[in-house]
Design a protein that fits this description.
Length: 373
């Protein structure tokens, strides 16, 4: 098994999109986002007789406070059989790259179900250890979109069906929008949403680049919801093989009672069906389905569309420098504890401001997926 840096976009995407373990964050285009994702990108391919048997898109990141590089494989590697030679060959090649760059660990988050014994055995044999702090949220909400539209609507909660139709009755119109001015419009809405709900967003060029790169092969859509010609909400979705993933959502502080976000999701589902997709991935929800957890509000919103939750395998790290890795773990634990305290404080503040406990936990659910990308 030979490992090479792959520069052929069609070859790479054809393999990644055909594999059950493929994911949008392992497609060729994702590596072109390296400036906003934190560092350089490598596309390592395991080949036999010129045919790809494994792919690993590696982002070279910088650990906070330590200011030392590490290698991160978002929702990868993409390998059909973890017990085969491809996974070991890819990890060995990543180790050589880590040595050249002074990286202190390799972090992988395979796009496979939690508890998969073949993957667990293979990663353990290669020296990986579990990391309880995931970089990419492990639990997602997904919807099988193979049924016809009437059946999909019937599978939603009654209030969600009502809101989709209500948006139409309240004269909300949704259109596909791919012009530069439309990206500007979406970003203004996204800034408004981020300020309202308190989450990080990338510079506008990040989202413009996603739409440009994936749009070149009809694998991305920007939808804008408008009322009387004024944009009031937006959504970006990206396709990878049979799966369309809801990536980013935004809404204005005005006209929210017109329920544009429900209609946007329904339009994105229909867009995905029209391109032959079989699954619509709403992305992250709370890993533990407990109202006290951050991202639980996203669960209460997304599950109304029907579907089910999936839980991915734990994050696994392969340390190359034990002292640095130990320090990284301590820093990460402190940061996650701080984030949890902040989340609990925000809930208390909302309740103190007069919201019910339920309203406090669902206040941002319909407007955005705060996980970003």
């Amino acid at each position: 098994m030979q490992v090479e840096v792959i520069t052929n976009r069609e070859q790479w995407n054809s393999f990644v999109e055909a594999q059950p373990t493929g994911n949008v964050t392992q497609t060729y285009e994702w590596g072109e986002l390296r400036d906003s994702l934190g560092g350089d990108a490598l596309r390592l391919g395991a080949l036999e007789s010129g045919e790809l048997h494994g792919a690993m898109l590696v982002i070279v990141g910088q650990a906070p406070l330590l200011h030392r590089p590490y290698l991160y494989v978002p929702r990868g590697p993409v390998v059909a059989d973890p017990a085969g030679p491809a996974l070991a060959a890819l990890c060995a090649a990543a180790g050589r790259e880590a040595k050249k760059r002074g990286a202190f660990m390799l972090k992988v988050e395979p796009n496979v179900p939690d508890g998969d014994p073949a993957w667990l055995d293979a990663l353990h044999a290669l020296g990986f250890r579990k990391n309880r702090f995931a970089t990419h949220p492990r639990r997602s909400w997904v919807l099988d979109i193979r049924p016809d539209e009437e059946e999909l609507l019937a599978g939603m909660k009654e209030k969600w069906r009502y809101n989709i139709r209500l948006a139409g009755r309240k004269k909300v119109q949704v259109r596909e929008a791919m012009q530069p001015a439309d990206v500007d419009t979406f970003y203004r809405l996204y800034e408004e949403t981020a300020k309202r709900d308190g989450f990080f967003i990338h510079p506008k060029e990040h989202y413009a680049t996603i739409l440009r790169l994936y749009g070149e092969r009809d694998a991305a859509v920007l939808l804008l919801a408008e009322y009387e010609g004024t944009p009031i909400a937006g959504l970006i979705a990206v396709r990878c093989g049979p799966v369309t993933t809801y990536m980013f959502g935004a809404s204005s502080n005005n006209e929210r009672n017109r329920m544009p976000n429900h209609l946007l999701q329904w339009t994105a589902i229909r867009w995905a069906k029209a391109r032959g997709c079989t699954l619509y991935d709403f992305r992250a929800i709370a890993e533990v389905l407990d109202p006290k957890e951050d991202l639980y509000s996203l669960y209460t919103y997304k599950q109304g569309f029907g579907g089910y939750s999936t839980l991915s395998l734990e994050t696994h790290d392969l340390p190359y420098n034990a002292p640095l890795y130990w320090a990284y773990q301590r820093i990460l634990a402190v940061k996650r504890a701080r984030d949890q305290r902040r989340h609990e404080r925000e809930l208390r503040q909302r309740e103190a401001a007069g919201h019910s406990a339920k309203e406090a936990k669902t206040a941002v659910a319909a407007t955005t997926d705060r996980t970003g990308a």
